[in-house]
Amino acid sequence: MDTECETDHTLTVGSGVPMSAYTATDAPNAAALAETAQAMTAPGSGILAADESNATMNSRLAKVGLDGTPEVRMAYRQTLLETPDLGDYISGVILFDETIRQTATTGTSFIQLVKDARIIPGIKVDTGAKPLSNSHHEKVTEGLDGLADRLKEYADMGARFAKWRAVINIGDGLPSAKALHVNAHALARYAALCQAAGIVPIVEPEVLMTGDHGIERAEEVTTAALRAVFDELAKQDVLFEGMVLKPNMVVPGDTAPDQASVEQVAGATLRVLYRTVPAAVAGIAFLSGGQSDDAATDHLQAMNAGRTHPWSLTFSYGRALIASALETWRGDAANAAAAQAVLHERAKANAAASAGRYKKESVPA
Ligand code: 13P
């Protein structure tokens, strides 16, 4: 038999294997994954990233004079999640491993607290960005070992989506092609494992805004990062309809002499997304990345105002949603209602921006 000839005429897809092998649409949970991903990114709502690692949370608590103990971290997150009507504006909450295992002082588990608020529970599953060998100050995110088992455990607990964050630095000669590749590869491995476990992956390649680079460089690097990520996702047959992309907005470096207007940021960000993100992706939920609360809302509004896109464009903010609530709370139960009012205001404003109907004056203080 002339096998060479047969091989020559075999159609290939995605990872280059014959069409009879696995393709993204074979995902056993395809319809449920797509439904969850759409619910997470429905216009008029967005995601609350309350999944700071203990080290990150402790440094934020220290800034308001609090000790980072499990009890303080729990009290803070309980305060956030008990915000009245949070589910009107928040579709999903990302929890950290410690939190998903905790029980609130009311005796309700955190996961139940989230569900009671009509919010989809999610979980951060990467184990952090670690130094990348053979490179200058670059990082690769770890956490793939044992991930299939951990995902099963989280799914049994009730988590319906997960998050994995890769970090890409802009600097002199950075990022390297190597850093883009290994981070994209790990993101795709994670996403594939999530979908096999019936969990929607949030795929987060964050190009950091640290530095003095201009918006043009941020656009170039974000384009390269997203190209690398979608190339790997396709090679690993990830179902685009059953995932959520969590990118940075395209902004100049935080110490750049020339800062950009709201229109410039919205324009550059949309240009990158249209050039790199397949229309089949269920939704895009931005990180805030160190932008001010107002800038994060204004940029989202500018991208959605009067336009429709192939995907919904919403938020998955950490700092831009909850930093001011933490400032208000400061560990004092007497401040809980005021802190919740601050979070409510930010959530409401960003939910409106995700539907292109945010007007500054329409949000009560
Ligand atoms: P920020 O919005 O504070 O960037 O956090 C979002 C997030 O989840 C980072 O992984």
Topology, pairings included?
Elements: H1 3-8, E1 12-13, E2 17-18, H2 30-40, E3 46-49, H3 54-63, H4 70-81, E4 90-95, H5 97-100, H6 110-116, E5 120-124, E6 129-131, E7 139-141, H7 147-157, E8 161-168, H8 177-196, E9 200-207, H9 215-235, E10 244-245, H10 262-276, E11 283-286, H11 293-304, E12 312-317, H12 319-329, H13 336-354
Parallel strand pairs: 3-4, 3-12, 4-5, 5-8, 8-9, 9-10, 10-11, 11-12
Antiparallel strand pairs: 1-2, 6-7
Helix pairs in contact: 8-9, 9-10, 10-11, 11-13, 12-13
The chain binds 1,3-dihydroxyacetonephosphate.
1,3-dihydroxyacetonephosphate binds next to helix 12.
CATH superfamily annotation: Aldolase class I
Structural class: alpha/beta
Distance between the termini: 77 Å
Instruction: Please give the CATH architecture.
Output: Alpha-Beta Barrel
What does this structure look like?
This protein has 365 residues and is α/β, with parallel strands linked by helices. It has one domain (31-358): Aldolase class I (TIM Barrel), CATH 3.20.20. The chain has 13 helices and 12 strands. It is globular, with a radius of gyration of 20 Å. The N and C termini lie far apart (77 Å). Mean pLDDT is 94; it is low at 1-9. 1,3-dihydroxyacetonephosphate binds at residues 49, 165, 204, 287-289, 317-320.
